[in-house]
Amino acid sequence: MSAHDTDRILLCFDGSPGSRHAIEVAGKLLPGRSATVLHIWTPMSVTAFAYGAMMIPSVDESDVQQAAMAVAEEGASLANAAGLVATAEVAEGTFEGTWRAVVDAADAHGAALIVMGARGLSTFRSIVLGSVSHGVVQHAARPVLVVPTPSRVEPPAGTAKQSGVIL
Q1: How is residue 156 annotated by DSSP?
Q2: In which band, very low, low, confident or very high, does the pLDDT at 43 lie, cut at 50, 70 and 90?
Q3: What pLDDT, on a 0 to 100 scale, did the predictor assign at position 125?
Q4: What is the pTM of this model?
Q5: Phi, psi (5° rounding) for residue 75?
Q6: 69 lies in which domain range?
Q7: Helical spans, DSSP H, in the chain
């Protein structure tokens, strides 16, 4: 399989209920597709800069990378169970934001589609923290599927709802 598999999708996974739900929905909508499950880890220097910290705690970043890969592998396992053919990958977050790492990974893989869950931040938290999904949608050169959290998915009258997918 080449890095530019035209059917490959990029699944963003951070372990949250929203990202888990997005994998379930992708499996239902795109069964059998090859997928890269991506988890973004952030170096302490980027975290300290983002939060204006003066002191950077001493952390072995190889431990952080290993923990990030464990999260990505969990997501790949969920994706495989959902009917996709998935592999795990991690990427390093940048000063530009998590959205940049997602877009760069999608470009590197030539992904046909980016799938991600909506975190459902409040309006205030979105303004302060920014929205990864918003950044990806604004900057990606490919389609992006943002899957709403299950609690926000309401089926139209007269339709059946199954795991957030309106049938």
Answers
A1: P
A2: confident
A3: 44
A4: 0.77
A5: -65, -40
A6: 9-166
A7: 17-29, 44-51, 61-81, 98-109, 123-129, 132-139
